[in-house]
C-alpha cells in the first residue's frame, strides 16, 4: 500500500533527512550500476513516475537550459509542467519545479516524508539523489502535472531518473566527462546516455556526429530526429540580452526568435527544445507560441550577469567542454574593454590543467583561486599551481568563495570584468555573497 498520508514533517526536518543520506564521495547519484534501489523505492510509493507523460533529457552539457526551454514551450501550450533538474545553485527546491517555480516548502517536506516512509517499506537506504528523484515524482503525481521534464543527473542508463518511460528522449551532446563512471571513449559515454531511450520514445539528438548517432539509433525507439539533418539553427545573431535566432524544424520555419541567454550554444539548445516539443505533440509549434516561450526562459547560474561596472558574471561550467563554451561567450560576445579577472574553484577529480586551459585562464589578467564549499573540493593552492603551470602571470590563493569575490571586486575598475566559475558550489556561494555586496 503506497504511503499516501506520510507523517507531518517540516521543511527543516526534510533537509535534515536529506543531509543524513548524502554520499559526498560519490555525489549521491550512482553508487553502482543498478536501478534496483530507486525501483523499489518507487514501488513503495505506488510508482508515481507513471502518472504523467515524460520528456527525459540527457547529455554532457546544456541539459539545464534545454530542459527550461522545453518547460516553457510546454507551458505555453497550456500544460501544467513539472521540471526535475540538478544540481541546484542556492536552494534544493530549485530541483523540483512546477510551471517554472520551485515547489513550496510544505509540498517538498510532504514528499520527502513519503520517501522516509517508503524507505522503511522498501528495505533499502536510498541515496540523496534517489530521495530527491522519488520526491520529485511524488510531488508531480500529487500536484497532477500533465507532463514532467526530467533531467538526468549522471550519464543515463543507471541514473535514478531512468525508471521513467520517456515519451521523448532528448540528448543534448556528448563530451568526455564522468569518465570514472563511463569511458574512456566518447562512444562509451554515448552508450550510457543512450540508455534513456525506450521502445516508445521519440528520440531527438542535438549530437550530430554519425558515429555517435549510430549508437542512439541502435536502441529500440519509435522515431528519431537529429540536429543538422532534421532541425537546425539557420541564423544566429548577437542581440541585447541574448541572441536573435532563426530555427528550422521538421515541421516549420521559425525566424526572429529571441533567446534571452548568452552564447551560440543556447541557440542550439533552443532549436533542440523546439524539435523535442514538436515530437511531443506530433505537430508544429506556432511561431507566436515559440516566441513567447523562449523569451520567458531563464536558468540560474548559466552565464548570469549579476552586476555592471565592473561586469560580474557567474557561470557553473565545470568540465572542459563547458569551460570552452564559457570562455568563448566571455571573450567573444562580451569582449570587456578593461582587465579580466577569473575567480575559479573546482571539485572532483577532473584534470585541472585541461579545465583551466579550456577557460583560457592564461588570457585573464588575474586568476583568483578559491576552495569550493564541498567535501569534494580541490584546494585553492592546487588550482593555483595548475594555473601557474599553464602560464598565468598573476595568480592569487584565497580560501573561501566570498573572500575571492571580495578580492576580485577590490581589484576591479568600472571597465573591468569578473568571471566566477568552476562548479555549481562556487556559483551558489558566489551568488549569495555578491547579492549582499553588489548594488
CATH topology of the largest domain: UDP-N-acetylmuramoyl-L-alanine:D-glutamate ligase
Principal-axis shape? globular
- Largest sheet: spatial strand order: 4-3-2-5-1-6-7-8
Structural class of the helix and strand makeup? alpha/beta
Strand content: 15-25%
| Count, helices | 14
How many β-strands, per DSSP? Answer: 17
Helix content: 25-40%
Q: In total, how many domains does the architecture comprise?
A: 2
Specify the CATH homologous superfamily of the largest domain: Mur-like, catalytic domain
Give unreliable regions as ranges: 25-30
N→C terminal distance = 54 Å
Question: How does CATH name the architecture of the largest domain?
Answer: 3-Layer(aba) Sandwich
CATH class of the largest domain: Alpha Beta
> Over the alpha carbons, how many angstroms does the gyration radius reach?
21 Å
Largest sheet: 8 strands, mixed
**Taking all residues together, what is the mean pLDDT?**
93
Could you give the topology of this structure?
Blueprint: H1 11-20, H2 36-45, E1 53-58, H3 63-76, E2 81-84, E3 96-98, E4 101-102, H4 105-122, H5 128-143, E5 147-151, E6 168-171, H6 186-193, E7 202-205, H7 210-218, E8 223-226, E9 232-239, E10 242-249, E11 252-259, H8 264-281, H9 287-295, E12 304-307, E13 311-315, H10 320-334, E14 340-344, H11 352-358, E15 366-369, H12 380-390, E16 395-397, H13 401-411, E17 417-421, H14 424-437
Parallel strand pairs: 1-5, 1-6, 2-5, 6-7, 7-8, 13-17, 14-15, 14-17, 15-16
Antiparallel strand pairs: 2-3, 3-4, 9-10, 10-11, 12-13
Amino acid at each position: 500500500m503506497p504511503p499516501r498520508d506520510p507523517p507531518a514533517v517540516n521543511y527543516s526536518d526534510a533537509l535534515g533527512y536529506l543531509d543524513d543520506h548524502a554520499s559526498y564521495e560519490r555525489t549521491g547519484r550512482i553508487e553502482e550500476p543498478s536501478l534496483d534501489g530507486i525501483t523499489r523505492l518507487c514501488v513503495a510509493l505506488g510508482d508515481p513516475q507513471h502518472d504523467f507523460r515524460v520528456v527525459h533529457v540527457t547529455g554532457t552539457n546544456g541539459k539545464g537550459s534545454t530542459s527550461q526551454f522545453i518547460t516553457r514551450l510546454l507551458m505555453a501550450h497550456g500544460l501544467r509542467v513539472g521540471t526535475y533538474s540538478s544540481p541546484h545553485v542556492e536552494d534544493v527546491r530549485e530541483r523540483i519545479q512546477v510551471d517554472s517555480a520551485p515547489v513550496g516548502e510544505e509540498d517538498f517536506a510532504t514528499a520527502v516524508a513519503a520517501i522516509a516512509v517508503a524507505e522503511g517499506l522498501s528495505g533499502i537506504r536510498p541515496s540523496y539523489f534517489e530521495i530527491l528523484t522519488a520526491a520529485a515524482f511524488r510531488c508531480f503525481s500529487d500536484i497532477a502535472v500533465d507532463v514532467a521534464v526530467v533531467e538526468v543527473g549522471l550519464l543515463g542508463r543507471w541514473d535514478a531518473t531512468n525508471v521513467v518511460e520517456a515519451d521523448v528522449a532528448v540528448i543534448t551532446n556528448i563530451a568526455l566527462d564522468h569518465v570514472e563512471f563511463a569511458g574512456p571513449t566518447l562512444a562509451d559515454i554515448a552508450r550510457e546516455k543512450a540508455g534513456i531511450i525506450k521502445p516508445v520514445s521519440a528520440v531527438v539528438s542535438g549530437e550530430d556526429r554519425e558515429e555517435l548517432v549510430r549508437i542512439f539509433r541502435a536502441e529500440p525507439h519509435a522515431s528519431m530526429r537529429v540536429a543538422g539533418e532534421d532541425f537546425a539553427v539557420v541564423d544566429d545573431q548577437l542581440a541585447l540580452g541574448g541572441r536573435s535566432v532563426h530555427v528550422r524544424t521538421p515541421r516549420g520555419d521559425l525566424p526572429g526568435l529571441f533567446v534571452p541567454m548568452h552564447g551560440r550554444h543556447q541557440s542550439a539548445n533552443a532549436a533542440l527544445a523546439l524539435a523535442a516539443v514538436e515530437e511531443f505533440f506530433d505537430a508544429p509549434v506556432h511561431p507566436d507560441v515559440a516566441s513567447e516561450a523562449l523569451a520567458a526562459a531563464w536558468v540560474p547560474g548559466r552565464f548570469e550577469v549579476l552586476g555592471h561596472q565592473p561586469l560580474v558574471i557567474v557561470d557553473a561550467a565545470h568540465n572542459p567542454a563547458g569551460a570552452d563554451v564559457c570562455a568563448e561567450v566571455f571573450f567573444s560576445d562580451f569582449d570587456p574593454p578593461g582587465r579580466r579577472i577569473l575567480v575559479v574553484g573546482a571539485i572532483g577529480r577532473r584534470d585541472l590543467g585541461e579545465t583551466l586551459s579550456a577557460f583560457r585562464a592564461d588570457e585573464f589578467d588575474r586568476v583568483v583561486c578559491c576552495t569550493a564549499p564541498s567535501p569534494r573540493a580541490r584546494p585553492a593552492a592546487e588550482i593555483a599551481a595548475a594555473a601557474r603551470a599553464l602560464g598565468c602571470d598573476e595568480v592569487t590563493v584565497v580560501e573561501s568563495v566570498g573572500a575571492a569575490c571580495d578580492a576580485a571586486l577590490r581589484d576591479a575598475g568600472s571597465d573591468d570584468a569578473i568571471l566566477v566559475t568552476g562548479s555549481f558550489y562556487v556559483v551558489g556561494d558566489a551568488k549569495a555573497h555578491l547579492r549582499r555586496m553588489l548594488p
